[in-house]
Amino acid sequence: MPQTPAKFVILDRDGVVNLDSDQFIKTPDEWIPIPGSLEAIAAMNEAGYRVVIASNQSGIGRGLFEMSALNAMHEKMYKALARLGGRVEAIFFCPHTAADGCDCRKPKPGLIQQAAQRFGIEPRGVPIVGDSLRDLEAGVALGCVPHLVRTGKGEATLAKGNLPEGTRVHDDLRAFSRWLLQGDGAARAGAAVSTVHANAKTNAG
Ligand SMILES: [Mg+2]
Ligand SMILES: [Zn+2]
């Protein structure tokens, strides 16, 4: 029997949910949502999707900020989301630097594996949204479907190319959520979709 992927979405944080900075996001004041991103999370929740974040936070390993600052940033995010009726189920983060050689710093898939285990889901087919190649690679390693946003480092990532096969590009998280929720609606209209495929085949032959 074909298995539908869980209604689950995995997001990178910096450059996807909030504005990114080359100087790192170190304080709650520096944590500023990208316009429409929190609304997008709330809309996905409304449609039955559980949303988690998987984020490299090497600023901790570099000693740029403490865990308490990271917690305060996330508290700010949770509160802002709650005002919109949205929620993020969990935030998985890697506090290490590249030199630590850990299993969780993206592009390693450790954070995605942690999320899948915690929520008992199969990562195959689950959308992963990021603004850097390594976000997508971490998910693709486990069969997630890659989505690049143009916010944050997204434009630069797109310009560099070499994106995983099948990567879809969206202007921002809001555009991704619209695509996801429309696609979801189309998938539910199963009969219509089959007809289109059948016709396409006939025309091609
Ligand atoms: Mg990012
Ligand atoms: Zn790590």
From TrEMBL:
Question: Which pathway does it operate in?
Answer: Nucleotide-sugar biosynthesis; ADP-L-glycero-beta-D-manno-heptose biosynthesis; ADP-L-glycero-beta-D-manno-heptose from D-glycero-beta-D-manno-heptose 7-phosphate: step 2/4
Q: Provide the top EC class.
A: hydrolase
Give cofactor(s), names only: Mg(2+); Zn(2+)
Q: Which GO terms describe its cellular component?
A: cytoplasm
Q: Could you say which EC number(s) this protein's record lists? A: 3.1.3.82
Sorted UniProt keywords: Carbohydrate metabolism, Cytoplasm, Hydrolase, Magnesium, Metal-binding, Zinc
Which GO MF term does the entry hold, naming one?
A: D-glycero-beta-D-manno-heptose 1,7-bisphosphate 7-phosphatase activity
| Signal peptide range | none
Localization: Cytoplasm
Q: Name one GO biological process term.
A: carbohydrate metabolic process
Q: Where is this chain primarily localised?
A: cytoplasm
NCBIfam families linked? HAD-SF-IIIA, Histidinol-ppas, PRK08942.1
The entry's protein name is D-glycero-beta-D-manno-heptose-1,7-bisphosphate 7-phosphatase
Gene source species? Cupriavidus gilardii J11
